[in-house]
Design a protein that fits this description.
The protein has about 375 residues and is mainly α. It folds into two domains: about 90 residues, Fumarate Reductase Iron-sulfur Protein, Chain B, domain 2 (Orthogonal Bundle), CATH 1.10.1060.10; about 270 residues, no CATH class. It contains 18 helices and no strands. α8 packs across α9, α12 crosses α18 and α14 packs antiparallel against α15. It binds iron/sulfur cluster (SF4) (2 copies).
Length: about 375
């Protein structure tokens, strides 16, 4: 067992947990959670870990990533301890702990620091874009103030640090999960079978669908297309689709003038899913449709906002290119679209976005070591 840290409870509240020390261990939250099972007892067990300050146990656990933040446990908690928010706070804490630069800690704990960092990144990325078009008159003017090499090299360093941080974070998590899981769970499934189950989960959100299925749940009578699992699915696949379309565009050279080019069709469909998903997610957070959306942190708002803007500006550009409308506004929108998209890529290592790589890894460990025991 790791060292007990009495300050841990107050630390985890900085990541968005409510007063979870109000928990009196009744077990309602675990009973009501549609995703917990015999082998992965959460969220109650993790509330105990938090109160005892067992940081290492938390960082070594895959369970915190198995929760999809449906909020059902928070709805039923008789002590308003917010177990759902607490699990989300643990994930933020884990992202900040795995990432090596300390930037994530700063971003999650301090809104002013997050805003300043985002603005700094936008300005820098805007300047960096001009290094890709050094003959443009604005570029030439800019380079008389800040030399080309300085802007270009700082941009490259930032991209490099982001890449290294993601790989470092993943390796750290892998080592921590291996330490805990492998020693506790000797029985294991086949590697490829587990990988297939992870892919299946990402493609279908099968587990997420079973979240929040109580008879009196708000979502029970709602169509699948507006349920949180589908909103999550739309955002995730919308973003991945756009990323693939952009890479294909880049590789096959300037197909953007033809909207019927395969990569453009993929981009259009993916963009529609991204806008659909982010619009619904923003609406749910704004209206606080259920307890799961009660408390939205600035970093989460910004993340959704950036995704939404990237989708909308992408469509604007597609339409204006299709109609060959070459206005100054389009150049400004292109700049905004590119900066936001690059900002999303760079924030990948240092924000909630990182769950996109950590959750699949945790799922892999779950399918490989735990699932068959149920
Ligand atoms: S339902 Fe609330 S009080 Fe009961 S164990 Fe869960 S967090 Fe604690
Ligand atoms: S938020 Fe939902 S998935 Fe997460 S622990 Fe609570 S009930 Fe389970």
């Amino acid at each position: 067992m790791s060292k007990i840290d009495p300050e841990f409870a107050s630390e985890i509240k900085k990541y968005g947990a409510r007063d979870f020390s109000a928990c009196f261990n009744c077990g309602n939250c675990t009973a009501v959670c549609g995703l917990t099972d015999k082998s992965v007892n959460y969220p109650r067990m993790f509330l105990r870990y938090g109160m005892l300050g067992l940081q290492e146990e938390i960082l070594q656990s895959k369970e915190i990533w198995l929760c999809y933040s449906c909020g059902e446990c928070s709805e039923t908690c008789p002590r308003q301890a917010g177990p759902g928010d607490y699990m989300a706070a643990l994930r933020r804490y884990a992202i900040a702990s795995y990432e090596p630069t300390g930037l994530t800690k700063l971003i999650f704990k301090s809104n002013p620091a997050f805003i300043l960092f985002t603005i700094f990144l936008s300005v820098l990325l805007g300047f960096f874009l001009f290094t890709l078009k050094p003959d443009h008159e604005v570029s030439r003017w800019l380079f008389t103030i800040i030399p080309y090499a300085v802007i270009h090299n700082i941009g490259l360093i930032i991209f490099g640090v982001t890449g290294i941080s993601v790989i470092w974070g993943l390796l750290t998590m892998f080592l921590k999960l291996s330490k805990d899981t492998v020693k506790k769970d000797k029985s294991k499934s086949n590697f490829w079978k587990s990988l297939k189950e992870v892919m299946n989960e990402l493609a279908t959100m099968k587990r997420y669908k079973t979240c929040d299925k109580e008879e009196d749940s708000y979502w029970q009578s709602k169509p699948a297309a507006v349920q949180p699992w589908f909103v999550h699915w739309s955002i995730m696949w919308g973003f991945i689709g756009l990323l693939v379309a952009t890479v294909l565009d880049f590789m096959v050279k300037d197909p953007a003038t033809d909207i019927w080019w395969p990569s453009r069709i993929l981009g259009t469909i993916a963009g529609l899913f991204l806008i659909y998903g982010t619009t619904l997610a923003v609406t749910y957070h704004m209206t606080r449709v259920t307890k799961a959306y009660d408390k939205t942190r600035l970093a989460d708002w910004m993340f959704l906002f950036f995704l939404w803007i990237a989708g909308i500006t992408g469509f604007w550009l597609e339409i204006s290119v299709a109609f060959q409308a070459d206005y100054l506004t389009n150049h400004i929108i292109f700049l905004i679209h590119t900066i936001i998209s690059m900002e999303l890529v760079l924030l990948f290592a240092f924000s909630k976005f990182a769950h996109a790589v950590y959750r699949p890894l945790a799922l892999f460990f779950y399918f490989k070591y735990n699932k068959d025991k149920n």
